[in-house]
Input
Amino acid sequence: MKKEKFSVRFEAIEKELIRPRIEAFKAGIINRDSEPMGVRRKSFWPIESTYKLFQPGFLGAVTSCHEIDGIVFQPVNRHYEPGRFDYLLKWKPPELSTIDFRLEIKKIQRPGELTQWVGDLHVLHLDRPFGRLLKVTNQMRQYDKKIIECKFVRDKGVCGWEFMRERTDKSHPNALSTAESVLNTIKYPINRDDILNFIHSFITKKRQEQQQKHENVH
Output
């Protein structure tokens, strides 16, 4: 199956996994409440329908999701490749771009100064902190040596990493290459209009090329 193109694999997930499970639920063969996790197929649409994903109410009408936090652009005709797949593109609104770090909280005490706690943020394949939390509260000290998700904030001339939540589902932080890629999207953001305008221009160009090719044949 991994040698098949995406459209074939996509349909196989529905036909050979999702539908049989639904029938098994109905027949009482599988007890959903006893399962440690659920299974669902991520929804995909043709690239020319991307604009619909941003329309109010569209996602809620066709999926269980009610707001968009990112888009995956998946090649249609390529086979499955395990590991890093350079032909798959992911986009998130800049304000929702985050990095998973391993937090290390340190105590800093200088003569004549109050005790200060700092939070160094570590990623894989880097022997020094990738960044530092803007602030560390007493409550956050429970996350020392834990994997946490952070977002980059800019507020009144101050910028840096802000704690969002603990990632209990992860045992390792993001790799350096991933962290650098996310940081790059934060520094040089691509917004919704940029995405939609590029897609519109691309589709328009393709249609013009196809029309020209058709006219040349006739």
User: Anything to note?
Assistant: The chain has two domains: 6-94, 97-187. Residues 147 and 171 are 7 Å apart (CA to CA). The first helix runs from residue 6 to 27. The chain has a mean pLDDT of 91.
